[in-house]
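Self-study notes.
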Amino acid sequence: MQFGMKLGVRALALPSAILLCIGSAARTEDAVAKVYPGQVVINNPAATKDFADWREAMVQMRNAVSAEGCFKATYPAQEWEAVSCSAAPDYPIGRPGGFPSSLANHVSPGVMEQGSNSIAGNDNGGSDGVRTSTVGNGVAWAGKVSGAYLTSSEGSFPSVTGVTSENDGGTANLYGLQLNSYFFPSNSTACQSAKLPAGTTCYQWEQFLYTPEFTNSTQYYVYIQYWLFAVDSAGNFGRVRKCPSGWSNYSGQCYTNSNAVTVPASVQVISNLKNLKLKGSIASGNDTVTLTNGTTLYSVVASDGVTKLASGWNYSEFNLFGAGGGSAATFNSGSSITVKISMTNGSTAAPTCVNYGTTGETNNLNLGTCAGTGGTSPYIQFTESN
């Protein structure tokens, strides 16, 4: 049995042991159970490794070819199906008041306490005067690696407890998942064509996204958003004088989107959160964003040349935030979520937990402690709750 892509490219054979596991799981009817239209969740623990092997094999197969486009695959399919691409939502996922005034100051307002993994965040005005570290708008746990740059990173929610509802501005089940790089210098074609203030360098930022039409919770998209801005030698952000052709200006910065693949609205209900994973990867000269929803994969492949992320990706921030424009995702009281950010750069060293974020969207959960774990699949993990 072989895996392939319906793209006229060579199919890639998998090791027979993996194929045997996948084949046997595919014939076990009680291994999966439908819970939402278009979404399947594996309930049988014996099938979990089979699905994980299948998913990793599908990602490797897709990374081995250079075809750009939009794709979908559902376990235990042997091929990626090319699907129609859509236009991504035409609004910025970023900081509503522009970006930080300085790279050096971006760590504020969350400041790491010396010798610990806890952070002091914004004072939300509670009656007890306790300072809380509400997620977003610069307050975050993110992972950082040293040495080789990242080739992939994936965000997931291993544990979700007490979550019964979520809303953004009163609209239920309206939120976005973001997996973000940090700001990095670039010599991409876009940087070369932008007009920057004298004495500044072109920096870029890349976001792997799963977001709705901002205020519309009936349609979700998987895509990549790219940013470009001017930074001087002291790390201060300036206003870009002219954005590259095809890019939009937002608060003196520039952004544009990749193509997008649409996802059925039924999958983003908050009770489905534990089944969602968002991954960014670089291979064969392309950047790829992949959403795992239960046993269905949605993926968009685009050129790495837009930002040249491969030459600057050493940081990964992932979380659930408001849908866009600096909005907030509000969970019911008593919610607790564990967030895991896996990071691959060829090293077995544990990534470092760093407490500064890049996006302006927020949620109403408070950060707990963070720890990095090394091994064959390094990651950081932290909790957030209210």
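Second protein, same conventions, sequence then structure:
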Amino acid sequence: MTSALLHTVDNTLLGLCGLGYFRLTRDATILERADYLAHYVRHAPQPRVSILDVGCGSSATLLWLQQAADKVASYLGVDRNVEGQDSRFENFPVSHAFRSVDLDQPWDFGRFDLVSCLEVLEHLVDDRPVFAKLCSQVAPNGRLLVSTPSTPFVARMGKIIPGFDRISPTQDGDHVRMGYTVDDFQAMAEANDMEILSVDWLSRYAPEELRESFHAQGAPQRLWQNLRRPRTNLEDAWVIGGDPGTHADTYWSIGIYMKRRGQPSNG
């Protein structure tokens, strides 16, 4: 079966089965990040939120936002290739659009109440200019939400699971750096006149569970992994405002929620 046909079948099943199919066939960390974004949508200072999802991938976040549709004014998902997304989400109840973009090139989609960029920066050699562009898209009283691998977690698990801490010397789709720390994001925020509101932690994994997940790369293996060991404990999904000393090497990703400096923190 060709990749194009597989993509078509996947889109069809997603349209027919929705979240249930997505839960079974996707990496659990993707779903946890989508739920994490939905949390901040529900708690946004605006009554209804315009969202820019940078590096939207297969737009799992949009599926999750159906559960908070009354809080979403609009959703724009951007990535290098969003072909098929319009048909996948045809007649979806949340106002949405998709745009293809090379994040390394100049781009400007306007100003948004919530700009999200989840697990993207670690793939980019020139991450600082992209981070600056993310900040430029944040509306007055808006928020920026970013997540990346946590460097202490990747370093720790790389000693246990061969290849887990591998980085690529070129920008080829793999990670070009192990991850980020709180200090990394503090420096990036200050350089762009942003202020961190919360440091969060996503996807807690014990070594053996991570080993199984890391090696479940193909669709059949992923389906079997999700059936055999579903991640249903929300305490494993994400922690808002957790202590870095406790969580940085036990949670796969670090999440940073921030605002423009000088803007109110609430309301």
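Instructor comment on the second fold: The longest strand covers residues 138-149.
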